[in-house]
Amino acid sequence: MIDIKGFTIAYYGIVIVIGMLAGIVLASHIAKKTGQNPDDYYDLAIYAIICSIIGARLYYVVFRWDIYKDDLLSIFNIRNGGLAIYGGVIAAIITTYVFAHVKKLSFPLMCDTACFGLILGQVIGRWGNFFNREAFGDYTNGLFAMQLPLDAVRSSDVTKQMLNHTITKEGIVYIQVHPTFLYESLWNLCLLVALLLFLKHKKFEGQIFLLYLLGYGVGRFWIESLRTDQLLIPYIKYPVSMLVAVLLAVVSIALNVYLIFFKKKQVVETES
């Protein structure tokens, strides 16, 4: 926390803001590079950021209602975390669609361009979880194992396996866990580089965004399986992020196949 004359600012919030600003700069740069008007993306960012924060928060609250049902005002306190990326992505997609429709711009092209900013925002934003000591996995003794003070994390995120392998240093008890925030940040960084390299080779508008959904979905499915703070679907108790990741990956593959092969076949038949 940073204290400015009695007003505290969480490091989590600072990191998120840095990620957003970096994402806006990158998206506007890509827009200029591809012959679009960068100002459209600055305008879009104003609406998309607000809607994404609301969407990410609502998504999180819906699947963690047990935490908020007795303290509704805490829903509005996001300084300590509690944002779900898929909720933000869904809200951003809807916002972009409405914006593109009103401005009479290409929705698929805007998704292609804006998703670069989104990915960079995720690369940076995940480090907010580090400062919040959240979004970690179960016990590990591997190369990237991270130690956290037991009394600094939510008790609901602590497993028996962690408690069976605690480490005590100078009277402080630590748990040793998978730094899943780091895994996701690195995965997204690799995905960002891959999509930047692929940009000149895309075959249709919207392909970059579809490949983002596929690439992120694959990584998120694996990483989510390691986490101990999963948002679960009521009754069936299955991680909602894993289900969404699979659905988006399947949709991405299906649309890529259709738009590359079937559309191409239709063009050839028309020309002949």
Description:
GO terms for molecular function: phosphatidylglycerol-prolipoprotein diacylglyceryl transferase activity. Keywords: Cell membrane, Lipoprotein, Membrane, Transferase, Transmembrane, Transmembrane helix. This is Phosphatidylglycerol--prolipoprotein diacylglyceryl transferase. With 272 residues, the chain is mainly α. The chain folds into 2 domains: 2-137 and 178-271, no CATH class; 138-177, no CATH class. The protein contains 10 helices and 5 strands, in the order ββααααααβαββααα. Residues 267-272 have low confidence and may be disordered.
Descriptive key words:
two-stranded antiparallel ribbon; 10 helices; 272 residues; mainly alpha; disordered C terminus; three-stranded antiparallel beta sheet
Radius of gyration, taken over Cα atoms and rounded to an integer in Å: 20 Å
The shape, in one word, is globular
Q: How is the quaternary structure best described? A: single chain
Task: Give the distance, in angstroms, between the N- and C-terminal Cα atoms.
Answer: 67 Å
Order of helices and strands: EEHHHHHHEHEEHHH
How is the biggest beta sheet arranged? 3 strands, antiparallel
How many domains, in number, for the residues? 2
Secondary-structure topology with pairs:
Blueprint: E1 2-4, E2 7-9, H1 11-33, H2 38-63, H3 65-68, H4 85-103, H5 107-125, H6 127-132, E3 146-149, H7 160-164, E4 167-169, E5 172-177, H8 180-198, H9 207-224, H10 240-271
Helix pairs in contact: 1-2, 1-5, 2-4, 4-5, 5-8, 5-9, 8-9, 9-10
Brief write-up:
This is Phosphatidylglycerol--prolipoprotein diacylglyceryl transferase. Keywords: Cell membrane, Lipoprotein, Membrane, Transferase, Transmembrane, Transmembrane helix. The chain is mainly α and 272 residues long.
